Amino acid sequence: MLADAIVVIHLLIMVFITAGLPLIYIGAARRWRWTRDWRWRVTHLAAIGFVAAESLAGIVCPLTLWEDALRGQESQEGFIERWVDRILFYDFPTWVFTVAYTVFAALVMVTWFVVPPRKRTSVE
Helix or strand or coil: residue 118? Predict the structure, then answer.
């Protein structure tokens, strides 16, 4: 049951990262203040930065390792490779995901300048 909870947490992190980028642009167009919140944006950038860095370093995500340990198995695949493969039948090598994570992280960094975050002021 704890392993299933880790999968749910992992999925929520994945949704936060992937949905966060288009929401920033949609929020900028619709003038949603929260999409420019500095803390939210730092958290988003840090999350995808961590994923890209661990992938570039060839490190399996700690959440994946924890889930594997709870299920009594060991894996060299990351969360996305394993679950996306099971759900959508992708058969890509690990390097494809590494490139995707890195490109996505670069897009998030570019977005930092295109739609700059704002720190809250005492007036807000």
Answer: strand
The total number of structural domains in the chain stands at 1
CA 86, CA 72: separation in Å to the nearest integer? 19
How wide is the angle at C-alpha 6 spanned by C-alphas 107 and 16, nearest 5°? 25
Q: How far apart are alpha carbons 61 and 55 in whole angstroms?
A: 8
Where in the sequence is the domain holding 60, given as residue range(s)? 2-114
Report yes or no: 41 and 112 within 8 Å, Cβ to Cβ.
yes
User: Whole-model pTM?
Assistant: 0.76
Q: Decide if 122 is inside a domain.
A: no
For residue range 4-42, list pLDDT tens digits in order: 788 888 888 989 999 999 999 999 999 999 999 999 999
Residues 6+ apart with CB under 8 A from 70: 2, 3, 6
DSSP 24-62: HHHHHHHT-GGGGBHHHHHHHHHHHHHHHHHHHTTPPPH
Residue 102 CA to residue 49 CA, distance in Å, equals 8
As given in the structure block, the two tokens for residue 34 are 């929260």
